[in-house]
């Protein structure tokens, strides 16, 4: 029987994900020579060739791909074993580490934690803010147990390392200067703003979401200003510097808790002068998901946190 060394299999999986021995060594805090030695030992133990030269790089052979398919099942089974053991040992107690992007924390994570403090006081939830894409990196390396991310920036549902749960389709509203000619326009559509100067991030998820929403409405947005911080975006809109899409969940974070029908009243944290409008027609949305390492979702603490997040998502204002 072949010798299936879990440590070496994890090295092979990391090489498959990152593509180079150097990147694998950096990610695993090893030297490149140590990575090569471990993989050579694994190939010898299994009796197959795992790597082949491809220019200055290496790539996995068909045999290595076969090994990885079975290894993913082993890793998932071990996660399930850990989950069952955790339930046996800890019951209602334990700790769940959650990585989440900024607007998801006040809208979903905080209400979930508050509910769990009431219903399961022995369960500790540790929160770590992370960009939507970075949350998966933290999950894969074991730094968090649960990642809240955006579907557009997550691994595909076929990725064998993760289990995904859809939480929310978050509607996107549009913020305009209060004196804008379209601020009170009935039936405002995203396409009506095709000629406006836009404010969104220069890169990253929000840039891609804004661009995709506008392109789906039939135009490419002209980026007048680049910003990723919601307070900065809000201030620029209020100053008449452009328009911006705003996720409904961001309202739960306090950047504009004054409703969505017209201009913000004075005295709300310096955010007066903004008209926040619900778009008519095909309203753009961003899809929020939670993910766990496959097999770990049965852990009692993790399951309770997921249930609390679903409850918080269900309490969000619906799209209009």
UniProtKB/TrEMBL annotation:
Example GO molecular function term? DNA binding
The superkingdom of the source organism is Bacteria
The UniProt record lists the HTH lysR-type domain at 4-61
Q: Which UniProt keywords apply?
A: DNA-binding, Transcription, Transcription regulation
Name a single GO cellular component: protein-DNA complex
UniProt xrefs under Pfam families? HTH_1 (PF00126), LysR_substrate (PF03466)
Q: Which InterPro entries match?
A: LysR_HTH_N (IPR000847), LysR_subst-bd (IPR005119), WH-like_DNA-bd_sf (IPR036388), WH_DNA-bd_sf (IPR036390)
Please give the family membership noted in the entry: Belongs to the LysR transcriptional regulatory family.
Q: What is this protein called?
A: Putative LysR family transcriptional regulator
The organism's taxonomic lineage, starting at the top: Bacteria, Bacillati, Actinomycetota, Actinomycetes, Kitasatosporales
